């Protein structure tokens, strides 16, 4: 009874974040008349990542009269290609800021945080946003520390320039948060909650201005505490897990790396992405970048299929926004069936081969 009452209070509780410096008297609410937003843009191989566009959609909810600037950093021709695409990625983007320097060839948190602070001082932004990806969650907390403000993470709904909704207790409750700090307001956005609508031909013709940032006065730490070691990506034609329309996930019940290939083949046939539970990742069946859940990737596909997934709380927190959930498990009492739209009690080693036979070949 005490736990239930506690959760009920949490659903209606409004948490306030207050700036620690008492001499600051300007509230973010005073800036609501003119909202200027800086978004940290993610790009790869000359293309803007979909989660950045979803973050732009979220920024539109901050207020009607607002300007949105995208910040891109990196080096080489791929950066300029990404900047050109960013200028027309969404009609709400008014400016693209480009930092072309070898210092930002890799997205390390320390130099990026310094860069965001440097750009903020020039632009006087009221809000700084990034997606709740490893990129955003790595950089924005450090930016918040530099500015001595409290960041608000995993925002799923924006009620105004200073009021937001975010999940707590592994997604079992939603908390309304009002920001009362001196600004800027720093947010990480759960992009699956802000879908992108198709851009019309008229909107595509509207391109934002592209500006180069002068780093002549930029000062970075002489002794960096981190260094870039390497990056590994899977060479596959499958869609990205975070933005795929179809996601096929396997659990520890698959028992081995070899057996997990069944999931990969099914995903290829359905044109979907491959996901995995934390238990499957810990067992070494697949790399950790395929983990779905609270400590992995949050997904919201049109179809989510779970094979041998029990339905741990942290996993369910990452799939609850899926349009249709299909679960296959031998255990009829598995928690996954409580959230599934369609469920089948059966042996996945029998179900998957039969499903593969009956599915038409991918064209």
TrEMBL record:
In this chain the Electron transfer flavoprotein alpha/beta-subunit N-terminal domain maps to 37-222
User: Record's Gene Ontology CC terms?
Assistant: mitochondrial matrix
Q: Where does FAD bind?
A: 252, 277-278, 291-295, 308-315, 329
Write the protein's name: Electron transfer flavoprotein subunit alpha
Q: Which Pfam family, an example, fits this chain? A: ETF_alpha
Query: What is the organism of origin for this protein?
Result: Microthlaspi erraticum
Name where it mostly resides. mitochondrion
One of the GO biological process terms:
fatty acid beta-oxidation using acyl-CoA dehydrogenase
